[in-house]
Amino acid sequence: MHELAKKSTAAPTPPPPSGPAVSPPIIRPADFEDYPAFREVFLLYFADPSANATLRSFGILLHEMVLDFWGHWPNHSEGLFPAELRAAVADLRHVQGALQEWTGAALPLESEYDRRLAEVGADVARRIGEQTDRLEAELDFFVGRAS
Amino acid sequence: MCLPHEAPPEAPPGTETRRVPPGRRPPRRPAPPAPPPPPPDDDEPPVSAAPSPEIDPDLWGDFAVFRETFLVYVSHARYNAALRVFGELLFEMVLEAWGHWPEQPEGYIRSHLRAAVADLRHLQGYLTTQGENPPEDEPYEAHLCRMAVRMSREVGGVAEQIERELGPWRGEVS
Fold first, then answer.
1. Whole-complex ipTM
2. Number of domains in chain A
3. Are A80 and A142 members of one domain?
4. Which residue of A3, B81, B116, B139 is surrounded by the most CB atoms within 10 Å?
5. Do A80 and A147 lie in a common domain?
6. What is the average pLDDT across B73-100?
7. Inter-chain CB proximity B144 and A124 less than 8 Å
8. What is the Cα–Cα distance from A45 to B96, expressed in whole angstroms?
């Protein structure tokens, strides 16, 4: 074994979880600003409560700092409000894609119940796609990009 | 990029009145007046706003971390890109780490659908807020406001469809 390899330390053992897994929150739409930066489908992977809470706090801090500074940055060429709606379109497409993948054929579904859930998720993905198409068409029409 | 002791550059001239983005801020004392900014450097290229990407649903994993409704306010292209790269790093790292953490009590598909519902409810609230107070003197913006409100109701409807199917059980052991 190489000399340096003998001297290297073993990989650290991960610390024990700080508690039971954190489930996704129930977000009241009126409180959406309390969940500003990170997607819930990403935070789902931070199942450790301490890690999850830390990242949420960081997201809130980042959002506050961006709100304090955003006026110094360039304006969106089509105006802020259409840009905000385009951002919502992008987020809807993200959820659409995630649902399509989680409910797709590649996912192993072990029970009839899981298959039922997958059907519902797939239907929701389709409906989100249709709704988003309409908003996107409206935004594109305004800026003259309609085909 | 401005160093901490330098004043940030002014917004480009001739800009429209910007709608204040939604956000609650803690009360703070008024900041002292900023010193005048340095004259613009003619050799510096203009900085254009970073637009939101058009996300192909099949490539949703490439935009896994930050909400676009957050990144839209980071219109500085370089900083926007930096956050996206940081997000990629976080995503890679959490995929390595999450196996060491407890499993979701509801199981894989239920917990993932719950996360999707949470994101849909966020969008429902965001679109509702965007649709508030349509301007009387801007017909197109007013039209977009009404569209946002309609979208908000539709997004709420699909979130409810999943929630009804999932029911109230969240993995509690009786």
1. 0.86
2. 2
3. yes
4. B116
5. yes
6. 92
7. no
8. 10
